[in-house]
Structures are given as structure tokens and as C-alpha cells.
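Entry for the shared binder. Reason: the reviewer on the internal report wants the predicted structure included alongside the sequence.
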Amino acid sequence: MKTAISALALATALFAGAASAADLPTHKAPPPYIPPPPIMTWTGFYAGLNLGGGFYASNSSNQGWNWGWNNGNNNTGGVIGGGQIGYNFQVTPMFVVGAETDFQGTSLGSGGGNNNGWLFGFGGGGASARLNWFGTVRGRVGITLLSPQLLVYGTGGFAYGEVQRNGWWSQNSAVQTGWTAGGGAEWMFFPNWSAKVEYLYTQISGTGNNNNWAWAFNPGWGLNSTNNRTRFHTIRAGINYHFNFGSPAPVLAKY
């Protein structure tokens, strides 16, 4: 009888212990942390550098118009290079708006050696014209085409630049103002870096102080003329760094 009671008590104790162990909390290891993918967004400030080339448009006054007849100018093209800063705002995953300003130094120039000047060249046959520098302030509107990292955009706005005329006895220049328009494509190849290719057509105009009496007879060539128009094309490639400030804060995953 005592043996049966002891066996029953032992079984009861073992059963109670097993039940208590089942009620204890388990300490399962948490899942490994997987960082969220990099956030590719166009929103935010950026700055960068660019390099390219340009040439005068065929209807630009810088192509040369002398009193008499015109054979055109040499070296109407040149190298351009400079920098840009701007801000983008990604309105939707597909639609981006922004603003950008840039400043460029150029070697765009034209020599007057091929121009048949009036009165033994006193009409400006030995003159030359140069675009020393120019800048723009533009809006941008684009869409992310085919991929969130590829932005195709149109752009346009205000333009300004210094045009210089060099003659045998004088040198004059003027800061002309006008407009520019064009477009391009930009590829964000890393969360903070993008590369772009851009085309712009620019027209600026204005007058300057004329110190050479011979150019007074030259309505399309000298800066003394209000009809002076400087029209040129530029094609450039650039790289931009996108700063974190001005962009939305990243959303971290919760576990």
C-alpha cells in the first residue's frame, strides 16, 4: 500500500513539474536585422560641375556682319565649363520639379579674318568677338522615365553673359541678358550621386560702350547696336552631389 502511494505521489510531482516547465516563457533568438534598401529620391539640394562645348547659331550677330559683304567668321565654337547648384522636389514617384542656376566660363569666339571689310577693312574686317562667360537661372520639369533613377527633363529661364568685341584700336564689352531653353537626362547611379547630359539654346542681347568710330557704321556687328543678338548652342555633361538636407527623412523598418 505504501509503495503504491509513493508511486502515485512521484507521478503527480513529475506531471506538475512538466506542466510548470511548459508554462515558462521561451527565449527564441530574434530574426537577423536586414537594413532597408537605400532611398533613391530626387528631392533635395544638389551641386556639381560640368564641361562641354558650344557654338554660335547661324543667325547670331556674332557670325559677323560688316559694312559691305560678309563671308562669315572663323572659330565660332569653343569649350565651356563651370558649376551648378539647384533644388529638386519629387511631387510624385514619376513627376519632379526644380530650379537650377549655373555659371560658365567659355572660349566661344569668332575671328574676323574672313570678313571683307569696307574701306580697306575699317568696317571691322580685323575684329573679333568673344563670349567670355555666361550664366542662367532656370526652372526644371521632368519625369522618371523607365526607371526611378532616370530623370528626363525640360528646362528654361533667364540668361546673361559678357560679350566682348576686339578691334585694332579699341576693345569694348557688355553684359547682355535674355533667355535660354533646352532639356536633358540625369541618371542617379548612387543615392547621393548623379550624372547628366544637357543641351541649351541661349539668346542674349544688349548694348555696350563703343570706342571705335569705324564700328558706328556697323549696325549688326558692334555692341553700339540695339539689334545685336548673341545666339549660341551648348552641349555639356556634368556630375551632381545630392545633399541630405532638404530631402525627406528615411523611414526605418520596425520589428
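Summary line for the report: The two ends are 58 Å apart (CA to CA).
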